[in-house]
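Running this now, will post back.
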Amino acid sequence: MTDENQNQDEPVVRDPSTGSGQADGAPEEGAPEASDLIEDETELTVDDILNAANAEVQEPSDEHLADLKRVTAEYANYRKRTEANREIERERAVGAAVSVLLPVLDDLDRAEKHGDLEGDSAFATIAAKLRAAVEKLGLAAFGEVGEPFDPQRHEAIFQQPSADVEVDTVADVVETGYTLGGVQLRAAKVVVSTPQA
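Update: finished.
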C-alpha cells in the first residue's frame, strides 16, 4: 500500500472553523504530543492530599475562627446565666425555709429582752444553736438602737421628737430585720427619734 492509499483509508477529521483536515491519529502541526502532556502533569499521591488537608486544619480560615469565637462566647454566656439562675433559686429556697423560722427568732429576741436567756439554761443553749444554724444559711439580722433611720431598711411604727438627735435615729427595735444574701427578707420595725423643730 502506498502513502496515498494509506491516507485515503484513514478517517479525516476536519476543523469546522477552518475546514482544513488531517487524518485521525496524525498530530496537528504545533500541537503538543500526548507524551509531552503526561510529562507536564504532576501525579498526586495520598500523602499530598493528606498534607493539604492538614495544612488547612492547622491554618484555619478567618471564617472558622469567627465561628469558633462566637460559639465560645455563646457557651460562656449560657454558663454565666445558668450559674446566676442556680444561685437565685438557691437563695429563694433557703429564704422560703428560713422565713418560717422568723417568728421563732422574734420570740427568742423577746425572751432575751425579758432576761429568760441568761445563764446556762437549756433554753439559752437551744436559742444559741438555732441562731448559729440560720447564720450558717446566710441569714443576717439588722436594726440596732442608735443607727440612722433608713426607710429602705426600717419600718417606723412610732415617732417621738427628741432634743438629743440631729437626724432621724432608731430609738428602739420592736422587730429585728433580716437579710439573706443580697435579699431583704423583712424590714426592721423600729421606734424613731426625730429632731425637734
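The first strand starts at residue 12 and ends at 14. More later if anyone needs it.
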